[in-house]
Amino acid sequence: MKLTLTQFVTLDGVSQGPGSPTEDQSDGFTRGGWFVPFIDDDFLQQASQWLDAADGLLFGRRTYLAFARDWPQIEEPDPFTVRMNTLPKYVVSSTLKTGEWKPTTVLYSNVVAQLSALKGKAGGELQIHGSSVLAASLLDAGLIDSIRLAIAPVVLGQGRRLFTGHRDSSFELTSQRVTSTGLTLLEFSYAGAVQTEEYSGVVPRD
Questions:
Q1: Which of 77, 80, 93, 127 makes an SS bond possible with 54, Cβ 3.0 to 4.6 Å?
Q2: Cα separation of 49 and 96, whole Å?
Q3: How far apart are CA 189 and CA 161, in angstroms?
Q4: What is the pLDDT of residues 29-65, one digit of tens each?
Q5: Displacement of CA 44 from its chain's centroid (Å)
Q6: Which residues have CB under 8 Å from 166's CB, separation 6+?
């Protein structure tokens, strides 16, 4: 399986609390729900296609608990309800022993080895949704194969940023589009370490 990160972010890189004012108020965050005004049919169709590729979902503890609280209460005809509630779920946590949002497997030790083993199994994608702290650590570990970003045209000025790790990584842009509400949807595949050069003037092209 391929390990894929799907993340909603602002122009200033904030990924905290996109879906509700009360979704994640940790560290005094007061501007949750910033992504919702930009959701339209175009985005929902694309997000549904992304979820179609999932054979499993991976979360950090905080995102898992929020999703486990909310998704069982979201009824059809929401296009994501059945898949979110029935796909195999994996949560990385040193404090949780079991997960109530079935089917859930808790990964509490040798996480890199366990995720490497999962990636070695046949299947489509193991998708990380939200979980920015976990995503940064997995990027540091070199485990993330591709990234999908839905960038909202807002600047919040506060909140937890995506990718606060330490490993440099470069990605190749594989897909791009803009929805009718102004969401920029970008897909990237991992391309190795960052390459640097010194600018020495524009080289004429033939």
A1: 127
A2: 31
A3: 21
A4: 999 999 999 999 999 999 999 999 999 999 999 999 9
A5: 16
A6: 140
Do the Cβ atoms of 123 and 1 come closer than 8 Å? yes
- pLDDT tens digits, 128-152: 998 988 999 999 999 999 999 999 9
Q: Extract the runs of DSSP E, i.e. beta strands, from the chain.
A: 2-10, 54-60, 89-92, 104-107, 125-129, 146-152, 171-178, 184-190
**Over 80: is that where the pLDDT of 166 sits?**
no
Burial of 160 (0-12, 13-18, 19+ CB in 10 A): middle
Give the integer Cα–Cα distance in Å for 66 and 75.
16
Please say whether the beta carbons of 7 and 138 come within 8 A.
no
* Residue that has been written with the tokens 């939200």 in this structure: 130
- State how far the Cα of 201 lies from the Cα of 16, in Å rounded to an integer: 40
Q: Where are the alpha helices (DSSP H) in the chain?
A: 41-52, 61-70, 81-86, 111-119, 132-140
Closest C-alpha to 160, from 12, 57, 50, 38: 12
Q: Tell me if the bond preceding 103 is cis, omega within 30° of 0.
A: yes
